[in-house]
Structure to design on (81 residues):
């Protein structure tokens, strides 16, 4: 899972290419116009905004982060029972 407001973070783009080369799939959580990650990732969650409007993108990404975290916590709690 790759999270980037612009979708153009060089390290994340490299990570997406590496995942592809290793046979893994990638999920990009991007904003603005989606950037390069929107093109590379197998699955994309895109918070489309106009250039420069990072606030909304970061807020939606934060909500998504919390949802995924709670989901994973619940999975691991249920495994321990």
């Amino acid at each position: 899972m790759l999270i980037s407001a612009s979708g153009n973070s060089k390290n994340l783009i490299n990570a997406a290419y590496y995942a592809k080369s290793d046979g893994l799939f990638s999920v990009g959580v991007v904003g603005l116009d989606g950037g390069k990650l929107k093109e590379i990732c197998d699955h994309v969650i895109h918070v489309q905004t106009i250039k420069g409007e990072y606030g909304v993108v970061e807020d939606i990404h934060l909500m998504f982060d919390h949802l995924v975290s709670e989901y994973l916590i619940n999975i691991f709690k249920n495994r321990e029972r």
Q: What stands out?
A: The mean pLDDT is 91. The chain has one domain: 2-80. The domain at 2-80 is CATH 3.40.50.10490 (Rossmann fold). The beta strands are 2-4, 27-32, 43-48.
